[in-house]
Structure formats: C-alpha cells, structure tokens
Write a structure and sequence with these properties.
244 residues; alpha/beta; Rossmann fold; binds S-adenosylmethionine
Length: 244
C-alpha cells in the first residue's frame, strides 16, 4: 500500500454534515482510512488474493469493481499469471487518478485498464475469470443491486468466481446493536475521536446501505451462482466467495 496522508476528514466539528463522497479529500487519505476503518483489511486482502490466485485463468480478465486507489490490483499483480488483464472501475475521478498514480509509481507492468463507470447504470463485463466487489456493493442503490449482480454474472466465465467484502447488518437487531458498538470500539482503538465517529456515521447514513449476510447470500444464489461461502466474518464485516 502506498503512503497516504492521515485521515482527518471528520476531525473538525462541522456545522452541517453532507452525504459522504469519494472526492479528492477522501481519495488523498483513503489508504489510511481503510486500514483504520475496516477490521482485518490487510488480512481480508491477503485472503482474497489467495482465492483469486486459484480462479484466475491465463488469457482472461480480472475485474475490480470500485477499485479506489488500486490497492487490491497491486496486491494481486504479485500473484496472478502475467497474461491476465486487470480492469479497474470506479465512478470517482479522484480515486481513478490516485489509482493510476499508484500503479505508475509501483511500476505495474501487466495489461490493465482503468475505467470510469457508474455501477448504478449498467456495466459491460466480458471474459472474466475473477470479479471483485470489495466494500463496493454496499454503496450501490438497493434498487440496482440485482441488475449489477446479473451483469457481472453474465460476464463471468464458467467456473469463474465473484469475491465480495461487505459491511453487513447483524441477523437481528440485538446482534446488530452489539456489533456496531464493537465496531466503534475498534475505530476508537485506531485513533478516531467521538466527533469523527459520529460525523462519519451521519455522512454515510443514506450512502452506505448494508444488507444482512443472509440477504447477500440469497442475492448470489438468485443470480445463479452454484456455490457460495463466507470466507471471512468479523461482527458486521464479511467476505463471500461465489462460483459460477
Ligand atoms: C470502500 S471503496 C472500495 C475499496 C476498494 N475496493 C479496496 O478494497 O481498496 C468503494 C469504492 O466504490 C466506488 N463507488 C461507489 N459508488 C460507485 C458507483 N455507483 N459506481 C462505481 N463506483 C462506485 C467509490 O468511488 C469507492 O472508490
């Protein structure tokens, strides 16, 4: 992961909280934000790397939907066969610019494309052996999730896999409250103040819409995947792998 400034986006008390945006301010500090806000981020990346290695097929494409600053692409670059092409998509120009700069800086040498794409309005996927939706489906409007999942599924080759990491709701409201409490404790341990926690929660309120793990599994089976399993779970975060 490249150097990133420390995340202080919500450190100052704001008079009004606007909806969270993946703009320049966030892109600049994003790598630090992920490490301090996503439990076991590095380990879940390592795990999805080993899963992707078992599914990536020479001559095919590996897609990273919501690629942000390219952390996953850079990690997988060290592990996948050289004749696999990487395609990163995002609807934040700031993220795509940061991603391009990181790939150049770290001398990314395999074929790749970075594409501006709004996953809410349809996406073209072809000849994919691996598709990744890492902490991204949660930002897609629920109304559009089924269609996006179908488009990804249609572009995946037979035996291809979809790897997802998502924030999820607890399976009932009691567990949900407990898991959220433990999650904010995790953020405190990582140096976020009460002001930062409260203001970010408010900014994400209508933007990040988590499903329950079970709802995500049902969505995957409904889409047509033959095998679905959970490879990671930490309170309200999970990793799921699905095979076509
Ligand atoms: C939490 S970040 C993903 C993190 C990244 N996958 C990783 O593991 O490093 C979510 C990303 O999804 C992108 N995103 C959100 N809504 C989107 C949409 N409608 N279309 C495309 N990308 C979107 C954001 O710009 C952001 O870069």
């Amino acid at each position: 992961m490249s150097s990133s400034e420390r995340d202080q986006v919500f450190a100052e008390q704001k008079s009004a909280i606007a909806d969270f945006k993946f703009g320049t301010e966030v892109a600049t500090v994003f790598d630090d934000m992920l490490i301090r806000s996503v439990p076991f981020y590095a380990e879940s990346q390592r795990m999805l790397g080993e899963i992707a290695t078992d599914f990536a097929v020479p001559g095919t494409n590996v897609y990273d939907f919501g690629c942000s600053t390219g952390t996953t692409m850079l990690l997988l670059d060290q592990q996948l066969p050289p004749d696999v092409k990487f395609i990163g998509l995002d609807n934040s120009e700031a993220m795509l610019a940061k991603c391009e700069a990181k790939l150049k800086e770290q001398k990314f040498s395999r074929p790749y494309e970075l594409r501006y794409a709004d996953l809410n309005s349809g996406v073209a996927v072809e000849n994919a052996s691996v598709a990744m939706l890492i902490l991204t489906l949660q930002f897609i409007r629920p109304l559009n999730r089924e269609r996006l999942m179908r488009e990804i599924y249609e572009g995946l080759n037979e035996n291809g896999c979809l790897i997802m990491v998502e924030k999820v709701l607890g399976e009932d409201s009691m567990f949900n409250r407990m898991f959220i409490k433990y999650y904010y404790d995790f953020k405190r341990r990582n140096g976020y103040s009460e002001t930062e926690i409260v203001q970010k929660r408010e900014a994400l309120e209508n933007v990040l819409i988590p499903y329950r793990l079970e709802e995500n599994r049902e969505l995957l089976f409904r889409t047509g995947y033959r095998y679905v399993d959970t490879f990671f779970k930490w309170y309200n975060f999970c990793g799921i792998v699905a095979v076509k």
